[in-house]
Each structure stands twice: as C-alpha cells, then as structure tokens.
C-alpha cells in the first residue's frame, strides 16, 4: 500500500509539517522528489476529473510550481493516510488533519493522496521510475509492527 502526496506552499513550513505527520505515525518513506509538473503531466494525473468544470484550473495550479512527490509505505497507509489528510474541502476538514490545519480553499490543494491501491499503483508509476523506489528495513519496524 502506498500514498502519494503533492505538497504545495513548499517554500515555507508545509514540507516538513506534512512529511513529519506521516513519519510520526510510523509510515516508511520509500521515494521522494521535488518536481515542477507540466500542464500535460497534471492532466494525466487528474485524468479522472477531465469532465469537471474545475479540471483546467486544477491542472494549472498543480503545474504552477514545485510539488513534493512522495511514496509512503505501511500497513493501511492509503486508508489512514487519507484520514491524516482530511476531507477534500479544507473548510470541512477536521482540525488536526493536514487540510484542516494547513489549507483554506478547495482546489488550492496542499496535498493529494491516492484513493486506493489501484490508483496508488498508477500514480506511483506516473510520478516515479521503479529505480526511484528504495527498498529497505527501518530500525523502528520491529517496534512499530511487533515482528522481528
Ligand atoms: N469544487 C472544486 N473546485 C476546485 N477544485 C476542486 C473542487 N473539488 C475538488 N477539487 C480538487 O480536485 C482534487 C481531486 O483530488 P485531490 O485529493 O487532489 O484534491 C481535490 C481538489 O483539490
């Protein structure tokens, strides 16, 4: 299971704040890079939404600056990662969630997370080459999962 998020406002505290929330939970970072996606790339990323009225504006926004692309691994990371992220509309996201704490307006997307294993697979393949995914065992894993 993976979650992929695109951090915006990356010139201030948002990068460390977002990374630390996944890290603190105990998920494992297996890929990370800062990229400025083209509009064409953004359209591929959001292809499911191409019929929506906000599609073009959303793709303009995604391609307007750097995005921190990440792959996080761990038990239940997609489902729970979405809880950490909060509701799509930041005005309805609970305080304590990333969108609840760090965003105000829907569409000015502080973070995106894959919504299921199939989407995660596709999105990881879009954003990363296989060799950019690092396979390793972290020292904390035996404490986090209770196995040796
Ligand atoms: N009404 C809307 N206006 C603009 N953007 C939207 C609207 N609804 C959803 N979105 C964006 O569409 C994105 C789709 O998935 P994300 O989790 O990346 O975050 C969502 C929002 O940023």
TrEMBL record:
Pfam family, one: NDK
A single Gene Ontology CC term: chloroplast thylakoid lumen
Keywords: ATP-binding, Kinase, Magnesium, Metal-binding, Nucleotide metabolism, Nucleotide-binding, Transferase
A GO molecular-function annotation: nucleoside diphosphate kinase activity
Entry's EC annotation: 2.7.4.6
Localization: Plastid, Chloroplast thylakoid lumen
Cofactor(s), by name: Mg(2+)
Reactions this protein catalyses: a ribonucleoside 5'-diphosphate + ATP = a ribonucleoside 5'-triphosphate + ADP; a 2'-deoxyribonucleoside 5'-diphosphate + ATP = a 2'-deoxyribonucleoside 5'-triphosphate + ADP
Family matches, as InterPro entries: NDK-like_dom, NDK-like_dom_sf, Nucleoside_diP_kinase, Nucleoside_diP_kinase_AS
Domain Nucleoside diphosphate kinase-like, residue spans: 14-135
SMART domains listed in its UniProt record: NDK
Any one Gene Ontology BP term: UTP biosynthetic process
Family listed: Belongs to the NDK family.
Function summary: Major role in the synthesis of nucleoside triphosphates other than ATP. The ATP gamma phosphate is transferred to the NDP beta phosphate via a ping-pong mechanism, using a phosphorylated active-site intermediate. Shows the highest specificity towards GDP.
Quaternary structure note: Homohexamer.
Name this protein carries in UniProt: Nucleoside diphosphate kinase
């Amino acid at each position: 299971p993976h979650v992929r998020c695109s951090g915006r406002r990356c010139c201030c505290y948002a990068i460390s704040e977002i990374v630390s929330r996944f890290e603190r939970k105990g998920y494992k970072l297996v890929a990370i890079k800062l990229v400025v996606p083209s509009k064409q790339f953004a359209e591929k990323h959001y292809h499911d939404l191409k019929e929506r009225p906000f599609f073009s504006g959303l793709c303009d926004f995604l391609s307007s600056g750097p995005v921190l692309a990440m792959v996080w691994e761990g038990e239940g990371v997609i489902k729970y990662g979405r809880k950490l992220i909060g509701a799509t509309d930041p005005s309805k996201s609970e305080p304590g969630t990333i969108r609840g704490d760090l965003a105000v307006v829907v569409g000015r997307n502080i973070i995106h997370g894959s919504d299921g294993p199939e989407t995660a697979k596709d999105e990881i393949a879009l954003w990363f080459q296989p060799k950019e995914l690092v396979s390793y065992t972290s020292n904390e894993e035996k404490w986090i999962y209770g196995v040796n």
